[in-house]
Amino acid sequence: MSLLNPQLGLIRSSMFKKSIFGLSAFILAACSAPEAVNVSGSSTVLPAVSLAADTFVKETGISVVVNAGGSGSGFNQLAEGQTDIGMMSRDITASELEKFSAIDFTKIAIGRDAVVPTISSEIYEAGVQALTLAQIADIYSGRVDNWVEFGGPDRAIFAVDKEASRGTRQIFMGVVMGNPKAETPGTDLVTGSNNEEQTALTQSDSGIGMLSFAWLNEDVKGLSIILDDGRVIAPSLENIRNGSFPFVRDLLVITRSDMKPTAQQFIDYLLGPEGQDAVEQSGYIQVSK
């Protein structure tokens, strides 16, 4: 026993030292790891930010967590310190600034987009391809509820709206109804994200709604707008770029004055060549163009 105990003590001492060394290395690695960046908000801005985050993580090793939830949610989470960067597809309202008047916020445009009045492909192909703003307002006000009134098929209109806090909804209603918070008694369904609304319109053969330009496809078609002077403005990248389409908007990221360095690093990346490529790949217009 007297021969074994010293050996056992040496073994335990060696194991203890290795454990302490391993723990110390883990603590040092954890302390030296770049602080993760949390981003949340607009489902419209999310595709571009997520795509940029993928390459940013590979290049820098800094983790970026991106979540949707809507423009209003993104702003509130930023204001309450729950996220580092808020994504918004509309401007900050006066009431939001008043609620958090003690905090300094900065708005940064990372791209341009348009909200597009969108209809089911069946209605588009039946001949309804352009409406006036007043005609769209008639639908959401409940004054018109059949496509035959606009030269389409004799089919009830299925009007899809978005949650009140959504930036896309506030831009759309601000232009169509003259009030971002307008009530819409003609609405048949309220959705949240662009993905949810796109699915609802795809599944309907008589729907109308509002989507970001990047979410249009063969199943959901963008309406052209007939202006008061008779001109017809199509929802095209060129008309978004030159501002002639009535629903053009900036895609924003919002920060606080106490932003941490890794968040600023990601903002700089979004405005750089790689980040702006991600904006364009997501179907939006770069701020540099």
- Low-pLDDT segments, ≥5 res: 1-32
The rounded Rg comes to 26 Å
- Tell me, briefly, the overall form: elongated
Query: How many H/I helical runs?
Result: 11
Order of helices and strands: HEHEHEHEHEHEHEHEEEEHEHHE
Q: Mind explaining what this structure looks like?
A:
The structure is a single chain. The protein has two domains: 37-112 and 249-286, D-Maltodextrin-Binding Protein, domain 2; 114-241, Periplasmic binding protein-like II (D-Maltodextrin-Binding Protein, domain 2, 3-Layer(aba) Sandwich). It is built from eleven helices and 13 strands. The chain has helices spanning 4-32, 46-60, 71-79, 94-99, 121-125, 133-140, 167-176, 194-203, 237-241, 261-271, 273-281; strands at residues 37-41, 64-67, 85-88, 105-120, 130-132, 158-162, 189-191, 207-212, 220-222, 224-226, 232-233, 248-256, 285-286. The strands form two sheets. Strands 1, 2, 3, 4, 6, 7, 8, 9, 12 and 13 form a ten-stranded mixed beta sheet that branches. α2 runs antiparallel to α11 and α10 (261-271) packs across α11 (273-281). The protein starts with a helix and ends with a strand. Residues 1-32 have low confidence and may be disordered.
Briefly say what this structure is.
This protein has helices at 4-32, 46-60, 71-79, 94-99, 121-125, 133-140, 167-176, 194-203, 237-241, 261-271, 273-281, and strands spanning 37-41, 64-67, 85-88, 105-120, 130-132, 158-162, 189-191, 207-212, 220-222, 224-226, 232-233, 248-256, 285-286.
Question: What keywords describe this structure?
Answer:
single chain; alpha/beta; D-Maltodextrin-Binding Protein, domain 2; 2 domains; 10-stranded mixed β-sheet; 3-stranded mixed β-sheet
